[in-house]
């Protein structure tokens, strides 16, 4: 890094610190230095949010109930290196060390042996230090909302050309929220009709496989749902087109932030009302490979579509607590459904728990492969018993 800082502006009623019950949201742009549209429209978004506060009731409520982090450029060196604007690929895609930052994160499927770059490390630390719930990273070179997983194996169904996460329905909803609120993305025509994207969305793996991507890292290790937004066919368009890009994306950018209020949230406390960090809280049937845990304040946030769910709160060594909840679409009210868990017999602080950075799905694939022969043997034994009878 050439000594250029990665700047983040935080907006909200309490911008300087996290407040219990208020979800954290982020937008990151320009991680490929030559993809410039996102960088510019995030500056427009900042101006719009700040000037609309206390004037526009919707924006006022959004900012009062959400903490919004905006990083206009994750790769300032790559941007500065792009001397001649070009619609297609340039050297400015990479950082100062010639590395592609969107192939540089730990991967959940294979060991990508990436030498973690300063920009990547800074973002990983940022994710670790905040309780991000929802995010999007802004790119250029196509026109589509792409969602997790970008990589895959047989466990996630990649053999069928689609890598499905446990929250696939939520991701499809998130991608469509952006696409349908965008001026033209929902039409799904792609760029130069190279590749049509039905409804303007795609599963990342279905489009093309990549390892070390930021969105998969956010979801697996950051407990944060992130999608990748490709906002322009031309990576570095002429300046006079920027106003139109802002108009095309303005509504979608706001509607997408509102989705941070989907689902259910709450606190896990002990018998004295003290928060229990690192308690596992997940919806039944949606186990994450890296279990989703409460933060230092004992808070959890689960993005879920309207419906009936069983929420399971577990403190290691104690009986889990199950609660059936009916979730409605509360995005218009700027607050997810609230449900707290109190462990009356617990009066200890849960120990710190971290998830290993190894390719977790690789282990899962090995485990599922190891189970298969055992099943065959069981079938064989059953058949032989029937024959001998």
From TrEMBL:
**Annotated Gene Ontology cellular component terms:** extracellular space
rRNA processing as a keyword? no
Name the UniProt record assigns to this protein:
Carboxypeptidase M
Question: Could you tell me which residue ranges the Peptidase M14 domain spans?
Answer: 1-260
Name the protein family. Belongs to the peptidase M14 family.
- Known PANTHER family for this protein? CARBOXYPEPTIDASE M, PROTEASE M14 CARBOXYPEPTIDASE
GO MF annotations for this entry?
metallocarboxypeptidase activity; zinc ion binding
**What keywords is this UniProt entry annotated with?**
Carboxypeptidase, Glycoprotein, Hydrolase, Protease
Tell me which residues this entry annotates as catalytic.
230 (proton donor/acceptor)
The reply to whether Transport figures as a keyword in the UniProt entry is: no
- What are the recorded Gene Ontology BP terms? peptide metabolic process; protein processing
Q: Which organism is it from?
A: Aptenodytes forsteri (Emperor penguin)
PROSITE patterns given in the database record: CARBOXYPEPT_ZN_1, PEPTIDASE_M14
Which Pfam families did the record assign?
CarboxypepD_reg, Peptidase_M14
């Amino acid at each position: 890094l050439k000594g250029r800082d990665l700047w983040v502006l935080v907006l909200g009623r309490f911008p300087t610190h996290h407040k219990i019950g208020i979800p954290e949201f982020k937008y990151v742009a320009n991680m490929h230095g030559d993809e410039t549209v996102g960088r510019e429209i995030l500056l427009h978004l900042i101006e719009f949010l700040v000037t609309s506060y206390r004037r526009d009731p919707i924006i006022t409520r959004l900012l009062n109930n959400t903490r919004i982090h905006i990083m206009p450029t994750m790769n300032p060196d790559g941007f500065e290196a792009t001397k001649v604007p070009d619609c297609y690929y340039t050297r400015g895609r990479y950082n100062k060390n010639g590395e592609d930052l969107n192939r540089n994160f730990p991967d959940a499927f294979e060991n990508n042996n990436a030498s973690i770059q300063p920009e990547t490390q800074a973002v990983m630390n940022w994710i670790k230090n905040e309780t991000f719930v929802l995010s999007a990273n802004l790119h250029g070179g196509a026109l589509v909302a792409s969602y997790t997983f970008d990589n895959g194996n047989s466990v996630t169904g990649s053999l069928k050309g689609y890598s499905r996460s446990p929250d696939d329905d939520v991701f499809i909803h998130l991608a469509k929220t952006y696409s349908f609120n965008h001026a033209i993305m929902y039409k799904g025509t792609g760029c130069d009709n190279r590749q049509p994207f039905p409804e303007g969305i795609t599963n990342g793996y279905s489009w093309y496989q990549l390892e070390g991507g930021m969105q998969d890292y956010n979801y697996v290790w950051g407990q944060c749902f992130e999608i990748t937004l490709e906002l322009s066919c031309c990576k570095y368009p002429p300046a006079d087109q920027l106003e139109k890009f802002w108009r095309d994306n303005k509504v979608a950018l706001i509607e997408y932030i509102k989705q941070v209020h989907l689902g259910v949230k709450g606190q896990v406390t002990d018998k004295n009302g003290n928060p229990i960090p690192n308690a596992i809280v997940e919806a039944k049937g949606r186990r994450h490979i890296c279990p989703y845990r409460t933060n230092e304040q004992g808070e959890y946030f689960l993005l879920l579509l309207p419906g009936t769910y069983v929420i399971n709160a577990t403190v290691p060594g104690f009986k889990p607590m199950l609660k059936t909840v009916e979730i409605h679409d509360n995005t218009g009210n700027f607050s997810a459904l609230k449900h707290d868990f109190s462990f009356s017999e617990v009066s200890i602080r849960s120990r710190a728990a971290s998830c290993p950075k190894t390719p977790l799905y690789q282990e899962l694939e090995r485990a599922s492969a190891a189970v298969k022969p055992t099943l065959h043997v069981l079938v064989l034994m059953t058949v032989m018993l029937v024959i001998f009878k």
